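Predict the assembly for these two chains.
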Amino acid sequence: MSRPAIEVRNLSHRYTTDPVLRDINLTIEQGEVFGFLGHNGAGKTTAINILTTLIAPTSGTAMVNGHDVVAERNRVTAGIGYLPAEVRMYPHMTAAENLVFFAELSGVSKPHEAVAETLEYLECSELADRRLGSFSTGMRQRIGIAQAIVHRPQVLFLDEPTAGLDPMGVRQLRETILRLNADLGMTVFMNTHLLSEVAQVCTTIGVLSHGELIYKDSIEETVRRFPDEASLEDIYARMESATP
Amino acid sequence: MITTFASQQIQSLRRQRIFVALLIALLAMTAVAGVLGWSSHNTITRVYDEAVRLLAADGKPAPPNPFLLKPSLSLLSNMVVYIPLLGALLALVLGHLSLADDEADGVGRLIFSRPVSRTHYVAGKLFAVASVLAAALAGSLLVGIGSLLVVNRAVPAITDLGRLVVFYGLSWLYLMVFALVGMIAVLMTRRTSLALLSAMGVWLVITFAVPQFTSGLRPTESLNPITNPVSTSQRFFQITAFARPYSVAEQYKAASSHILNLVTAEPVAQTIQRVLPIAVLVTSLAIVTLVLVERHDFSRSSSNE
């Protein structure tokens, strides 16, 4: 059996005195599309920051592709892609220039070819030679996805990827995530508020409330467990109201 | 990895209007320094020629041409004033821009979620800033040499060229202080606009406030490299005289004046002694920048409002 894509044990984090994450235990298998749900300030972005090695946890361990996020930082970052909530990159540079820069940082041997292939895969080659400063939110998001996958990572972290997108943009992004998972076998870890997206894209969900992981299971099992609830939104509301 | 960061930074800077505008202003001021030198040279020569003609008519001997008594590089003496003013602003903005995008636009999060070392990141940024600054000063040097060519109608002597190159080398070192201040301010503040204002505050202190104190409140000395005319018998002036070697702006101006041969010559060792505090300050600021980047939380974006 292959090693889990993400394995978190007793993970806690605090910025000041109040803990943001409390004793989180979580395992995500390779190839899963995991939806991390939670209210604003629940600790979702902090969890992504730890898993992408941007910050070190206060206590506990987190492994990505079998590597510790603190002790084996470079091995972890070599195998992940990350799309933050607001994607900006360098506005004075073209999309292709930005992507080549990030491909080189990831150690891609032929960055120009990798960028051209990635833009073609995402069906946005026409954006290559335009400066990022002139892009709409939707265009920036597509280039953001391109920078996250240009080095073909095994695990892709998306933080609120649908924020600011119009309905067509949301739909496009949903299709892209499903393609990345199906074609390239990428494990996807997605922070989101949009339960409709979770229902259509994710294979597993986790619910974070006030820094605690209060629920984690597959979508099918979740729906089976809560037969009285009409939608995932109702299930989520029930979980949230059950926590103190 | 260092070259990846450096080339990205240079590419980005070339397209930033504020930086390009300041660079053009610096080059224009270098040309202006030459034009002013040429203009005063022309006026004085015309007056001298007229005086020679009148004196010859009276059968009196003419004194030597005053320009022959002045050092040949005196035409560019205004550069010793322009570089600490405009050059320092350019360096400040350069240092600021080199990190501001990574902070305000959250690019730092994308960079450090990749297998890159923070030391390489700092080294790349410093290399880019130092290279761009060197290129800007090289441009200014070429404009300065062009001015000398036009005014003197002859190629400057090798010693004069050597002096100019050393002067611009010293200017590069001095301006690195402000580039590093610009970088540090970005790392220490949450708003990029506040970072630029703070850096400009430091520039004001180094360029104007400290020289006012160390020169014993003699306003002209903050702008012009003149010799100290005040007695050091009083306590206040003793203190300011003690602090003076640490005033990098004054040391830069004094060392520049000696390098360009604008004032009475001093031993080379003494000029090197003037440069030493600037070199120590640049090294210290580079170390501070490295430490701040190592400790910086790139998971948070600063506001660019």
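Chain A has two domains: 6-79+155-242, 90-152. Residues 167-184 of chain A form the longest helix (18 residues).
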